[in-house]
Amino acid sequence: MKKTRHNPFIQPPSRPTSSINVTPLVDVVLVLLIIFMVVTPLLDKSVAVAVPKTERVEDIQDVPDEQLLVRLDKDSNLTINDRPVTNAEYVATLKTAMDNRVPEAQVIFLLADDDASYGRMVQAIDLAKSAGVRVIGMSTAEPDEDKP
């Protein structure tokens, strides 16, 4: 029989190693560290924003006679200065009030309930425009004022 010779420079296959190679992990962590070190100083930049100052009205129930406050409640009912009106009365009242004013004073304020129909609010705005109102101001109230 012929004997096979083994090459002394080639080692026989061994069992696979179960250790994790951490070199790529360390490389990635160092690159991320450098990126965060470069980006962090840029985060301190801020932009100045001019925020308007708010004004709080003491009591929105007290409306001067010359000012028209139109309220739209959650049931889609309209009131002008706390007097309930129908659509026809709404247009007629606003038209009468706007005819007696100079164009710069043809202003109303609309205060709509949060639960009011959006379509009804748009209809109230359209009817006011048809009655001659030039400027419609949207009056707002803080949520704590209306809810008990």
Summed up:
This protein is α/β, with parallel strands linked by helices and 148 residues long. 32% of the residues lie in helices and 14% in strands. It has a domain at 68-146: Nucleotidyltransferase, domain 5, CATH 3.30.420.270.
Write the layout of secondary structure elements.
Layout: H1 23-39, E1 68-72, E2 78-80, E3 83-85, H2 87-99, E4 107-112, H3 118-130, E5 135-138, H4 143-146
Parallel strand pairs: 1-4, 4-5
Antiparallel strand pairs: 1-2, 2-3
* Structural class label: alpha/beta
Total strands: the figure is 5
Strand content: 5-15%
First CA to last CA: what distance?
106 Å
CATH topology of the domain at 68-146: Nucleotidyltransferase, domain 5
**Number of continuous helical runs:** 4
**CATH architectural category of the domain at 68-146:** 2-Layer Sandwich
The biggest beta sheet is recorded as:
5 strands, mixed
User: How helical, in percent, are the residues?
Assistant: 25-40%
The main sheet orders its strands as: 3-2-1-4-5
Give the CA-based shape: rod-shaped
Rg from alpha-carbon coordinates: 38 Å
Could you state the order of secondary-structure elements as H and E?
Answer: HEEEHEHEH
Mean pLDDT: 80
Show unreliable segments.
none
CATH class of the domain at 68-146: Alpha Beta
